[in-house]
Amino acid sequence: MKLRDKALIVTGSTLGIGKATARRVVAEGGRVLVHGLEREEGEALVAELGDAAALCLGDLADLDVAAEIVAAALAAFGRLDGL
């Protein structure tokens, strides 16, 4: 498990490649902060991934959202190892 005990943020992970990446993080033993704009898809993915995932919604075009995403990862996992 390459990502065992690592906490990562995957932006744009409510859909497509980001979603697949979030699944892979968990499959490799990591925890993932799912980020995106699509609430229903994000909630479904977090439910699928269980305790290894948390959700933060927001548009990265808003400069404050990046800090919110990092804060959400730290609140959920107590650490952040990568993006």
The major pleated sheet works out as: 3 strands, parallel
Provide a count of the helices: 3
Looking at how many chains there are and whether they match, the oligomeric state comes to single chain
Compressed to H and E, one letter per element, the order equals: EHEHEH
**What global shape is seen?**
globular
- Strand % is 15-25%
Rounded to the nearest angstrom, the distance between the terminal CA atoms is: 18 Å
- How many E-type strands? 3
Poorly predicted runs are none
Tell me the layout of helices and strands:
Blueprint: E1 7-10, H1 16-27, E2 31-36, H2 39-49, E3 53-57, H3 63-77
Parallel strand pairs: 1-2, 2-3
